[in-house]
Amino acid sequence: MPRSLLNIGAPLLIVGALVSLPVGLAFLGVIRFNEDLLFFLLAEVMLLSGLLVVTMRDIIRCGLAMIVCFGALAGIYVIAGAPLVAAAQVLIYIGAISVLILFAIMLTQTKDAPASLVFQTQALGAAVASVILALIVVITVAATDWGELGTRLHTATDALAQVLFRDYVLAFEVVSVLLLAAVIGGVYVAKREEGGPP
Amino acid sequence: MTFVARTWNRLTIPGRVLLGLFLLGGLLTGALIALIIFSEPILELLGANLPLVRFVGAATVVLLMTIPTAFLIIYMEMKIIALMNLRLGPDRVGPFGSLLSVVHGLKVLMKEDFTPTGADAPVFTLAPVVTYLASVMTLLVIPFAPGLFGQDMNIALLYFFAISGLGVVGLLMGGWSSFNKYSLLGGLRSAAQVISYEVPLVLSVVGLLILAGTMSLNQLVLNQAGWFTDWYIWQQPLGFLIFFIAATAEANRTPFDLTEADSEIVAGFATEYSGMRFGFFFFAEYVNVFIVSALTVTLFFGGWNAPFPFPEIALAFDPGSLGIALLILVAVVPVVGTLILAMPFYLLRSSMPFWQALVIGFVLFNIVAVAAVLGWAFVSLEWVAGLLWFMLKTYTFVFIFVWMRGTLPRVRIDQLMGFAWKWLLPASLLNLFVTAGAVVLVRELGA
Fold first, then answer.
1. Residue A14 maps to a domain
2. Among B126, B158, B160, B179, which would you mutate to test the A interface (most chain A Cβ atoms within 10 Å of its Cβ)?
3. Which residues pair with B148 in a beta bridge?
């Protein structure tokens, strides 16, 4: 009974803490109720799962936490008025890349010999790097004059396509060629055999 | 804590149930009182977040809808495959065995919910939830009838593919956390299969999108209104073929059900699952069959449009105009109808007791009344007619899926992967280029 109570209680406690913090902030008037509440919830989930990705021992669970992180980010895109980007995020980052990563982990790892995770041995350097990155982002965001862009804009699919495939088509194609080169390079590296060309 | 545990252990089972009910009732009453006290700010909050409320409501409705759908498809599969195998199939529970899938559901609920030693318990528990959720959430964007859909999104098709791709995460989680090599193989197979077939699946629809110029499923259906020659299947036959094959693989159906190939890897990712957690996987599979059929119908077969412009029938009278007479009619007609329908049986067969004739008359009257109400609804309500056509087409495709399961042998895993990359992908690219070329050509010639 106490064990099962813990199994139910601990997740409830976590969810309760996650929900009550932004709701409390909203009641105190720190954040606006309707617009910002959902954003704060998703941001909390994203930060927490992002933290879990780098702190948990089991690498599969790290991968699953990464999926949760990507999902919360997709939710934030929806709130920001870019549902197309959100759908692409879910389709590519969760549906393809994360699944591919999990697939590779499952092929290469065995469960009874937990590998020591490389980023846990470099925690100090990673912490410093992430703090510096966060500072750069904050400074950039604060220094930029957002102006009209600051209001919530709703990107229509066809408008985005016009911009992507007409105005910036050269950059788009360059990026695709770069990706293609990366794919070919990856296949070449993977196919290299003993005694063949290096 | 120990006091609570000791008291709980001393209670009999009915006592525990009663205590649970009391606690639940107390909680509900408290919630109700809180709701009444804070009704104004809550209503204000809901009104301010109307899209969110609509989303949650639609998700709940869709979730409830999946259960009868899955039951129906499971029964269809048992019965149709039995008939194809020259067996009788289920015939004990309910008329023609139709309640057997309900019994299946109850059985799954009552079985022991077992977690194997060495399994990763939270991941093991969450895996069926993720798979089921991914299936259910895709139903949100399917337009069932005019005005009857969860959300009419600008990017509905992309949303559909994105969310349905999430299902494989659940299969991978289940395969990994079961701590069983067969499960792991099933999970790996499903990941490889779904990622490979997602590429031709999405590419096969791009040709259609070029023709339609929209990704909103509702708008796609509206584009196909009119005669059945207006459906996209005639403009995109190759696209439809690729889509159908790839969708079969995405839904893990025969001949592509390599993830649970019982002759090779026991039951794949579901090997260690029992009870309701297995039930969720099982349900998700059948809901997926419905969803894939519904999407095929929406994209290529006109959705809720009738195959021909349906003649407008105006009803002779409006029942609402009768006023108070309608009430009297509602009270009188069932009695009179039952008596009239019972009369011939009682008069023509002297051996039949009166109550038996009355029962027959009552049943007959109900059939007539339901038919009349349905006919009235079909003629006067647009969404009833739309829903009827949509379900008719969708269940035709469900039948085709069941038919395929009854007749086609399972392919091998290397054949499966080779087929996706060597045949389906080039074919879908060809379809895309030919469609794009044709659209440009028509535009140039027209201008």
1. yes
2. B158
3. B145
Within the 260-319 window of chain B, which residues sit less than 8 Å (CB to CB) from chain A? none
Q: Which of A112, A142, A175 is the last residue of a domain?
A: A112
Nearest CA-CA partner of A97 in A192, A179, A190, A181: A179
In a domain, A41, yes or no: yes
The verdict on A97 and A175 lying in the same domain is: no
Beta bridge partners of B145: B148
Q: Which amino acid is at B311?
A: P
Residues A54 and A106 in one domain: yes
Range of the domain at A98: 2-112
Where a domain ends, among A57, A80, A112?
A112
Which residue of chain A is at minimal alpha-carbon distance from B48?
Answer: A34
Q: How many domains does chain A have?
A: 2
| CATH code at position A19 | 1.20.120.1200
- Tens of pLDDT, residue by residue over B15-66, are 888 888 888 999 999 988 888 887 777 777 777 777 777 778 888 888 888 8
Q: Is A131 among the domain residues?
A: no
Give whichever of B24-33, B207-216, B380-389 has the largest mean pLDDT: B24-33
The per-residue pLDDT for range B240-263, each reduced to its tens digit, is: 999 999 988 888 777 777 767 666
Cβ of A106 within 8 Å of Cβ of B159? The answer is no
Q: Which residue has the higher pLDDT, B262 or B192?
A: B192
pLDDT at B313: 65
Angstrom CA distances, B153 to A84, A87, B150, B423, stand at 10, 11, 9, 32
Give the burial class of A42: count Cβ atoms within 10 A of its Cβ; 0-12 exposed, 13-18 middle, 19 or more buried. buried
pLDDT at B46: 74
Distance CA B16, CA B20 (A): 6
What is the predicted pLDDT for the residue at B430?
92
How far is it, in rounded angstroms, from Cα A73 to Cα B308? Answer: 45
B-interface mutation test, from A56, A64, A68, A154, most B Cβ less than 10 A away? A64
Residue A133 lies in a domain: no
Q: Please report, for chain B, the start and end positions of each structural domain, with discontinuous segments joined by +.
A: 71-309+396-446, 319-380
Of residues B242, B270, B97, B245, the one with CA closest to residue B178: B270
Same domain, A22 and A99: yes
A100 and A162 together in one domain: no
User: Are A19 and A96 contained in the same domain?
Assistant: yes
Query: Same domain, yes or no, for A8 and A106?
Result: yes
Region B420-436 average pLDDT = 90
Nearest residue of chain A to residue B171 (CA atoms):
A99
Q: Are B165 and B194 in contact (CB under 8 A)?
A: yes
CB-CB neighbors (< 8 A) of A103 in chain B: 172, 188, 191-192, 195
Q: Could you check whether the bond before residue B90 is cis, i.e. omega within 30 degrees of 0?
A: no
